Amino acid sequence: MFKTPVVSRTEKRVPMAVAVRIAGHPALPGVETTFTEDVSSRGAKVYSARRWKADERLQMATLTGNFQSVARVAWCQQSREVGFAVGVEFLERSGEWVVAPRVIASDAMAS
């Protein structure tokens, strides 16, 4: 039986529905309008009608505001609610996301 590896998060996710567009599926091109279930400054759990593979790249942008990012698919699981739940990690981001990155004390001292 396949078990999903347990990954320790450095930052807790905040339950928040954010309307987003995702694109870049290798087999099913096009843009999908969907929403997040929870977010952090480093990534999000987003719903998709498409099945994604771990380590695939996608483009994600908010419908309102100016946030966009290339993101890495960390995991994808079939969802009872809507198609697939997909965990994404932001790689190349620009604009303002709904959760600001945490400033770590050592980072603040280096500035």
Descriptive report:
This protein has a single domain (14-110), classed as predicted glycosyltransferase like domains (Thrombin, subunit H, Beta Barrel). It has 1 helix and 7 strands; from the N terminus they run E-E-E-E-E-E-E-H. Strand 2 and strand 3 (31-39) form a beta hairpin. It has one helix at residues 105-110, and strands spanning 14-15, 19-23, 31-39, 43-48, 57-62, 68-78, 84-94. The longest helix has 6 residues, at 105-110. It has a 6-stranded antiparallel barrel with strand order 2-3-4-7-6-5. The chain has 111 residues and is mainly beta.
Keywords:
mainly beta, 5% helix, globular, disordered N terminus
Explain the layout of strands and helices:
Elements (H helix, E strand, L loop, with lengths): L13 E2 L3 E5 L7 E9 L3 E6 L8 E6 L5 E11 L5 E11 L10 H6 L1
Antiparallel strand pairs: 1-3, 2-3, 2-5, 3-4, 4-7, 5-6, 6-7
Summary of the model, kept short:
The protein has one helix at residues 105-110; strands spanning 14-15, 19-23, 31-39, 43-48, 57-62, 68-78, 84-94. The chain is mainly β. The termini are far apart.
